[in-house]
Amino acid sequence: MKRWGKFSTLKERGEWVELLFMAAAAAHGYHVLKPWGDSLAYDVGIDQSAHFLRVQVKSTSSRRRSGYYCRFRGGGRAHGYDLARVDLFASYVIPTNVWYLIPAAVILTPKPKGGILLCPEVGPNYNRNKYEPYREAWGLLAKSRRDLSRHGKR
Fold it and tell me: Which runs of consecutive H residues, i.e. helices, occur in the chain?
């Protein structure tokens, strides 16, 4: 049995992935905060003294063509996520043990994306993989909200 297959619900798997993210962020030297409950649009806070980032953690094991499809829909929210509540998405590709740290502006502007294809098993020069610059981009956690919002304007 695959290690991500031992969870009986997607909620359990999501909680496991949040723990993986928090451990990885802490290992990279970031101060990690976990909000109490499920009422906020983000899963984890990153406190870097001068600024605070709101991170929504996602995961995928859904193979599609040359990559893995990762959904970006807000749980139970009619309009999903927005830049007023989320600064960064941390997307974990479970079968390959790869993180993509993507500024929310990339996913939410100019038009919100319902999902994206992440391709960790193809080369970084794969012409359809525009998310490859965000692979293991842990340095983005040190950026301000303003800096991250500029990524959507590329």
Answer: 10-27, 104-108, 145-149
24 CB-contact burial (10 Å; exposed 0-12 / middle 13-18 / buried 19+): middle
Distances (CA, A) of 127 to 62, 79, 119, 122, 124: 21, 30, 11, 10, 8
Residue whose token pair is 């909680």: 15
Task: Tell whether domain 3-153 is in CATH 3.40.1350.10.
Answer: yes
Sorted by where each begins, the domain ranges of the chain are 3-153
The answer, yes or no, to whether the previous bond of 133 is cis (omega within 30 of 0) is no
pLDDT, one tens digit per residue, over 32-59 is 999 998 888 899 999 988 889 999 999 9
- Adjacent-strand bridge partners of 137: none
* Predicted TM-score (pTM) above 0.85: yes
H/E segment holding residue 145: helix 145-149
What's the rounded Cα separation, in Å, for the pair 154 and 152?
6
Q: Given the structure tokens 């997607």, which residue do they identify?
A: 10
